[in-house]
């Protein structure tokens, strides 16, 4: 089962915002995460695939068939919303069995299937409980079981973990991934949490203002962001405007930095990306790109420390495990990535 968005455009009649120029595919068994700031069009994309919105232009193919105008019910997709939308007066088992009831499955078969789906999400024996007597994480799993019970052709998840507290969220990531892998179905996972996307997805699509900026594996997105916007949204980043001023030399507000400039003409405007974990907090005196500075923010984050170092010309964000004072940093030439264009 695969999904293809082909040149999809949609505008809300009221506002005008929506999505535009969307070309995107989800492979068989693939978990594709869609990330982007609030209002970037993530939910719109999911609702287009689910069938709650009809595109103005383009095709949505499921296994090669255009479903853009096929009613919601006939698409056979499992959907989990941000608020789990369980029926409060129905037991967990009845909630899970509901999609089967809609499809005319008999009572006995429904009960058996629902029990099986609940077991799959680790809720064996919870079928008799009402939603109000379940924790957030358990309600979330009931919603997941309900989305999976009819063997959907694809799974659509819209910020399914955002209502959970931080502790539960990490566990549920593993849980969702386990269930998704076991079911082996194409999954569209919408989140505003880039860490969630990087840790779970096979590929990540970055949306901004209704347009796709980049679609790549988590590692490629982090290590080779295509633009300033992607680099800034995915992970923490130092980003400076720069000019290529010579062979292996880039001039930035924080000074001239040595790095490979292959592929960039002399005089070219670039964006200079350095991840904070690549900045060296206790450099050798002869290290390249050595810069003196003063700590202006010092955040203890448990496993590491995130510093803002004030240097001549700007700030450098540094992540280090060192506990001592930092008075200079070095930026290894190979840690510098040049992105096309200034800001
Ligand atoms: P996200 O899920 O990424 O936060 P949405 O897809 O919900 O973003 O929204 C994308 C854009 O469309 C936003 O600018 C939002 O304000 C607008 N929008 C969303 N729903 C509607 C609606 N029902 N009517 C008009 N505009 C909407
Ligand atoms: Mg949304």
Automatic annotation (TrEMBL):
SMART domains: AAA (SM00382). This is ABC transporter ATP-binding protein. InterPro entries: AAA+_ATPase (IPR003593), ABC_SmlMolc_Importer (IPR050093), ABC_transporter-like_ATP-bd (IPR003439), ABC_transporter-like_CS (IPR017871), Mo/tungstate-bd_C_term_dom (IPR008995), P-loop_NTPase (IPR027417). Residues 3-234 form the ABC transporter domain. The keyword Zinc-finger does not apply. It comes from Tistrella arctica. One of its GO terms (molecular function) is ATP binding. Coiled coil: none annotated. It comes from the Bacteria. Keywords: ATP-binding, Nucleotide-binding, Transport.
């Amino acid at each position: 089962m695969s999904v293809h968005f082909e040149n999809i455009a949609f505008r809300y009649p009221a506002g005008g915002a929506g999505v535009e120029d969307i070309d995107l595919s989800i492979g068989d068994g693939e978990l594709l995460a869609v990330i982007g700031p609030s209002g970037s069009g993530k939910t719109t994309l999911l609702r287009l695939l689910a069938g709650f919105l009809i595109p103005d232009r383009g095709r949505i193919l499921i296994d090669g068939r255009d479903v853009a105008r096929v009613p919601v019910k006939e698409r056979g997709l499992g959907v989990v919303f941000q608020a789990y939308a369980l029926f409060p007066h129905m037991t967990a088992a009845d909630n899970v069995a509901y999609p089967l009831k809609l499809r005319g499955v008999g009572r006995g078969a429904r009960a058996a299937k629902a029990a099986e789906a609940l077991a799959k999400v680790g809720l064996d024996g919870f079928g008799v409980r009402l939603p109000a007597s379940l924790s957030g994480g358990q309600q979330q799993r009931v919603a997941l079981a309900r989305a999976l019970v009819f063997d959907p052709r694809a799974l659509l998840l819209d910020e399914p973990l955002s209502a959970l507290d931080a502790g539960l969220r990490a566990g549920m990531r593993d849980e969702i991934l386990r269930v998704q892998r076991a079911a082996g179905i194409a999954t569209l996972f919408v989140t505003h949490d880039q860490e969630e996307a990087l840790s779970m997805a096979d590929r990540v699509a970055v949306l901004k203002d209704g347009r796709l900026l980049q679609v790549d594996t988590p590692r490629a997105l982090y290590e080779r962001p295509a633009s300033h916007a992607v680099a800034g949204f995915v992970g923490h980043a130092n980003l400076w405007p720069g000019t290529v001023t010579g062979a292996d030399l880039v001039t930035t507000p924080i000074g001239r930095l040595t790095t490979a400039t292959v592929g960039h003409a002399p005089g070219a405007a670039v964006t200079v990306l350095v991840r904070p974990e690549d900045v060296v907090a206790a450099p050798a005196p002869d290290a390249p790109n050595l810069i003196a500075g003063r700590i202006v923010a010092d955040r203890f984050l448990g496993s590491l420390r995130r510093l803002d170092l004030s240097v001549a010309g700007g700030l450098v964000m540094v992540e280090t495990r060192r506990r001592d004072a930092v008075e200079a940093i070095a930026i290894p030439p190979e840690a510098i990535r040049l992105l096309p264009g200034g800001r």
